[in-house]
Amino acid sequence: MENFPKKELVNIVQAGMLSSKSAFALAVGRFVAKLKHQDLPLAQELSRFLTVEHAMRGVGDFSPTPVDADTRMELVETVHPVVLQKAPVLDEATQGTLDSVLNEWENLEVLLHEGLAPARMLLFCGQPGVGKTLAAHWMAHELRLPLLTLNLATVMSSYLGKTGNNVRAVFDHAISRPCVLLLDEFDAIAKRRDDDSDVGELKRLVNVLLQALDDWPANSMLIAATNHGELLDPAVWRRFDHVLHFELPSKDLIARYLDYLPVADQVRTTLAALLHGESFSTIDQLIRTARKAALIEKSDLAPILVRRALRLRMSKGGMTKPYEGEMVMMYLDGRSYREIATHFDKTHPTVSRVIKRYLGE
Ligand SMILES: Nc1ncnc2c1ncn2[C@@H]1O[C@H](COP(=O)(O)OP(=O)(O)OP(=O)(O)O)[C@@H](O)[C@H]1O
Ligand SMILES: [Mg+2]
């Protein structure tokens, strides 16, 4: 009995009495992993109960959706099942991390037997429109779990003291069964800290949040999304298993994103070059309006797309000289370098340089 895992046994009892089903399963896993060295048959007998079904079992349905005490507005939006039209297009590093997390969840049972939990808290940072919310939806879809979304910016609009209660109510609701909880606009709390005089209340709110993160069960996933990761409290950062940085898409990613468009490869490459520097949501919007215009005008999609992409690039000051846009436009209309050069009274190499810069040709 000398090496008997006493501490782990105490943790089992504690988890069983005080915590969620998943915390209990995790504690049993830790106990079993240690016990294997002392009493293999007993460890094997106990590990029979460490199944995904047991670990994922919640207490049935969700508790009723929490509402704000004053406005009676629902504090959290629930989607189940999550239906996606298309998976997000992500860079290799981001996709790799998300895949590895999903892989851990697929092998939940193996992990549980060793007393290990899958990564369950992710922080998504990045500019607007690069796929943070979409990726959170995709994770819920892949995990086949309900998605609960709490928009912190909305909840924060009430009194701070009340915000703490609201946040706590949402967490209590979310842990009532396995799910993916998305905390959108997560920086709302951090931002508020800079310009709020009510420092004490805010500190309490951050503490409520930290406590809630510490108590997060092993059978649910928590994803926080923010445009301003740098504003977050380091104590908050540390609690996440992975911090993912969503960047503006590269030319290659844009080209992949445009894969479904019924246009020639050459047009796709041109568009990717012109739209480089834009977010996916801006690109998505441009495509949608162009498709509508093509339908209404009964004309080809490709030229409309390219012209709009070019106009966008010009409007953003992305072109050094005003005539450069016109040059590219002429080139796309099928005019030769020589014709363009004559038209603008420029040299052939100048035209070639401009075209190369914008279209990468
Ligand atoms: N990586 C991506 N792959 C495919 N589509 C994307 C991607 N990122 C954004 N989109 C498109 O843009 C829309 C908005 O993206 P999303 O809401 O995920 O952005 P976000 O990063 O959460 O932005 P915000 O910071 O403003 O909340 C999506 O519905 C989708 O159509
Ligand atoms: Mg978002």
From TrEMBL:
Residues 118-250 form the AAA+ ATPase domain. InterPro entries: AAA+_ATPase (IPR003593), AAA_ATPase_domain (IPR050168), ATPase_AAA_core (IPR003959), P-loop_NTPase (IPR027417). GO terms for molecular function: ATP binding; ATP hydrolysis activity. This is AAA family ATPase.
